[in-house]
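Show me any protein, keeping tokens residue-aligned.
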Amino acid sequence: MKGICILGATGSIGVNTLDVVARHPEKYKIVALSANGQVDRLLEQCEKYQPEYAVMANKKAAEELESKLKNKNISTQVLSGIDGLETIASLPQVDIVMAAIVGAAGLKPTLAAARSGKRILLANKEALVMSGQIFMDEVKKNNAVLLPIDSEHNAIFQCLPENYEKGLAESGITKILLTGSGGPFRTKALSELTNITPDEACAHPNWSMGRKISVDSATMMNKGLEIIEACWLFNTNPDNIQVVVHPQSVIHSMVQYSDGSVLAQLGQPDMRTPIAHALAWPDRIESGVEKLDLFSIAKLEFEQPDYERFPCLRLAEESIRKGGTAPAILNAANEVAVASFLNNELSFIDIPYIVEQTLKNINSRPANSLTEILEDDLAARKEAEQLTHLRVKQA
């Protein structure tokens, strides 16, 4: 039986992971769960799954959870903060770590899992966006197993040959075709994007996701971050990755080969499919996902991405080409801008503006250490916050 730690258990990925795990009690045991601030939701999960450990982001929330657990006579040990997250990601009884904490906050515990040689189910793309080389070096050094959970990267992984790590060209691969739905504003007039509300941006046509990721999908920054992540996961560069807008979200990504073949992975837009795949790999298990009915789909559409409509996609590609700490700066500025938009402080079209200006104002450097990456991450956040304040005053 495999012991599982879920970093970010109350988010959509965490909830879907628990759903898949619950279908196979003979295979998996929940050892540890973590949450940011949803005490009552984590309490419910602890009551149902009886983990050995639970972690809250801050001490006050941890104390509240601990009190409520005692009232229910649940013996789960409660920890808090980054130290607590690193602890549960490194527990000897944990075999699999689901890294599903959104944003830069997931970096350190995911690195801890890599250093402990765990099987890492990577749903936190920021770990690779911010510290790609450092993270991949730790995975290799400690014989960790890294499996992608993003539906696109999981699809690519399923379409690659076993020997792809020797190099895509050497494996006969000519292009990775990274699909994206285009979000809720794919066909909306550009002049109407100024007045987009947070609720509109979070109303994804196909996927059920958290609010931050939903906004990233609407700006296509999510796809830009996925390009950066794919470069590290599959040892390639952005020249070998083509974004394909595919509104139906049925083909999750494709791999093009030198002999003219294109392999695609299809499925329902349901994150339980890649979660189940990575949990059981190289085997397959039932996920609870409804089977795909090709006849009801009827047609599949594909479009070139519109960089005028989605400037965040261009900014992400520029940052990975620049390298060093540029992707970390991009990510930090985006997190600040998206949070401000969700708080009704910035307009939707201000998000790429804040990101681009931060990239111009903060000089990137080689990403030689985690310290340097985190320093530039902090500098970018401060700059993005200042730009946001100025933008708000101008409005």
Notes: DSSP finds 16 helices and eleven strands in the chain. The chain has a mean pLDDT of 94. The two ends are 57 Å apart (CA to CA).
